[in-house]
């Protein structure tokens, strides 16, 4: 628990130094998500995305946090946005991981989506 509190303090310090940077908010979101603070994680990822809407990882992790909260509709929308951004940015591994997550969350819809793409 001490490491978590230190991480939170460190990321809050980063935000205090540069409140316009998405990095502090993104990493604060990761720390909160890893410790089960899903609502706070979503808020942190929102802040990161408000500062940089091209952060594919932030969309992906916000999607996972929303899924943990039972918000499947927004989780799927965020994961699809993350996949699109990963693809645009040439991040094949990120794209594939996100597609795998989408298949796990919505297996029937993913099969229809992938079969219609062929």
UniProtKB/TrEMBL annotation:
Residue ranges of TPR repeats: 22-55
Provide this UniProt record's keywords sorted from A to Z: Repeat, TPR repeat
Q: Which domain of life is it from?
A: Bacteria
Keyword field contains Repeat: yes
Q: Which Gene3D superfamilies match?
A: Tetratricopeptide repeat domain
Spell out the GO cellular component terms annotated for this protein, sorted alphabetically and separated by semicolons: cell outer membrane
The record's Pfam families line, in alphabetical order, gives: TPR_11, TPR_8
GO annotation (BP), single = receptor-mediated virion attachment to host cell
This one is known as Tetratricopeptide repeat protein
């Amino acid at each position: 628990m001490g490491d978590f509190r230190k991480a939170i303090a460190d990321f809050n310090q980063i935000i205090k130094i540069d409140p316009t940077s998405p990095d502090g908010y993104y990493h604060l979101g990761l720390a909160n998500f890893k410790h089960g603070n899903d609502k706070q994680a979503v808020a942190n990822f929102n802040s990161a995305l408000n500062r940089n809407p091209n952060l594919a990882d932030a969309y992906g992790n916000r999607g996972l946090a929303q899924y943990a909260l039972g918000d499947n509709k927004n989780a799927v929308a965020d994961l699809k946005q993350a996949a699109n951004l990963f693809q645009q940015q040439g991040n094949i591994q990120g794209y594939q991981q996100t597609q795998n997550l989408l298949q796990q969350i919505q297996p029937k819809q993913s099969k229809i989506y992938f079969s219609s793409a062929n």
